Amino acid sequence: MVEAIPLRKFIFVRVTGPCTAPLIGGHIQEPHHDTLKGLFRGKAHSKMIALGIEGSANKLGVGLILHPAKGGPARILANIRHTYVSPPGEGFLPKDTAKHHRAWITRLVKKAMKEAGITVDDLDCICYTKGPGMGAPLQSVAVAARMLSLLWGKELVGVNHCVGHIEMGREITGAQNPVVLYVSGGNTQVIAYAEQRYRIFGEALDIAVGNCLDRFARTLNISNDPAPGYNIEQLAKQGVHLLDLPYAVKGMDCSFSGILASIDILAASLKANPGQVDSFTGGPITTADLCFSLQETVFAMLVEITERAMAHVGSNQVLIVGGVGCNERLQEMMGLMARDRGGSVFAIDERFCIDNGIMIAHAGLLAYRTGFRTLLDESTCTQRFRTDEVYVKWRD
Ligand code: FE2
């Protein structure tokens, strides 16, 4: 059972004119003007409820959020998730993940509606992850959203996954204008807001940091349950020796594939010669030391580029979102950096950090309230959908 949680108060933006600009994904919604005028006359001062469906990777999430009338605190009515867990040593394949999502989506939507205690009539729109993500899982979610839209007669809102993370993080923490570090299995980006866009200041040039950690979990053949990165984190807590690894920051960007290759070599060497000792302490080198060294190295890189972005934009707030954002060591390292700059770090727990349906519902409803709709004919999904493609009309 998911507890309904009151969120911080948000600013209600009253829409006074028709939508004339592209909002998400470059769609201009001129045909909806008449509908919108009626909508805003009738709904601008009443509560709005959105259903959100997320399934861009191995988590299938369904969330229901309520934005109350006149800017009262938003409420989470339901936020449930079911994860496809692949066997140890294996990643999750698109085909199998999509099959999982198709098998669970109806159950999750029913359960969410029941937990929220609402009916279809209470819903204003259906939000779904348009991208980025893995093709087949995204398709399964888009098909489910279209099916519900037709079945229930509700409008669709296609949502950028990264913007969903950012808006949910801002909503939960109350961070006003932070530099955002978005770190997950599929994405690594340092982002700051300027003039209606979430601008990418730095990003991974090859694999995402979460993918680096997940793939090393496969190398070690450790469990993917509840998540490979979580199990690496627990092992890293027992590590004491910091081993030498490449440090690959290139300007504002990072590279992780060479670090993964290096740690894989160290792991193979340790497996072949288990009796290795650290040249400085004389203590035995362990698998935990490998996890510790990998985390310390890649997190130091992330902290460096985040700090540089903070200096560029003059911000003293950092918001960490995405699945890797749950990592307590990353939060601690970022906190030390922010403290030294006289700033603060905002982090959220796994309910909102890891991919979830409520973030899609929330970001989708923010866009919906500014007049954005995704027409049925355009309700596609895409593996490539950059954060800065989204026109953020709901912020000043
Ligand atoms: Fe994500």
Structural commentary:
The structure is a single chain. This protein is an alpha/beta fold. The protein has eleven helices and twelve strands. The chain has helices at residues 33-43, 94-116, 135-152, 161-173, 209-220, 228-236, 257-272, 287-313, 328-340, 350-353, 357-369, and strands at residues 48-54, 59-67, 75-83, 125-131, 155-160, 179-183, 188-194, 197-203, 249-250, 253-254, 317-321, 344-347. The radius of gyration is 22 Å and the shape is globular. Mean pLDDT is 89; it is low at 1-42. The structure holds fe (ii) ion. Fe (ii) ion binds next to helix 4.
Q: How many helices does DSSP assign?
A: 11
Say which CATH homologous superfamily of the largest domain is assigned.
ATPase, nucleotide binding domain
Query: How confident is the prediction overall: mean pLDDT?
Result: 89
The number of distinct structural domains comes to 2
Give the CA-based shape.
globular
Largest sheet: 5 strands, mixed
CATH architecture of the largest domain: 2-Layer Sandwich
Helical percentage: 40-55%
| SSE class | alpha/beta
Amino- and carboxy-terminal Cα gap: 36 Å
List the helices and strands and how they pair.
Blueprint: H1 33-43, E1 48-54, E2 59-67, E3 75-83, H2 94-116, E4 125-131, H3 135-152, E5 155-160, H4 161-173, E6 179-183, E7 188-194, E8 197-203, H5 209-220, H6 228-236, E9 249-250, E10 253-254, H7 257-272, H8 287-313, E11 317-321, H9 328-340, E12 344-347, H10 350-353, H11 357-369
Parallel strand pairs: 1-4, 4-5, 6-11, 11-12
Antiparallel strand pairs: 1-2, 2-3, 6-7, 7-8, 9-10
The protein binds fe (ii) ion (FE2).
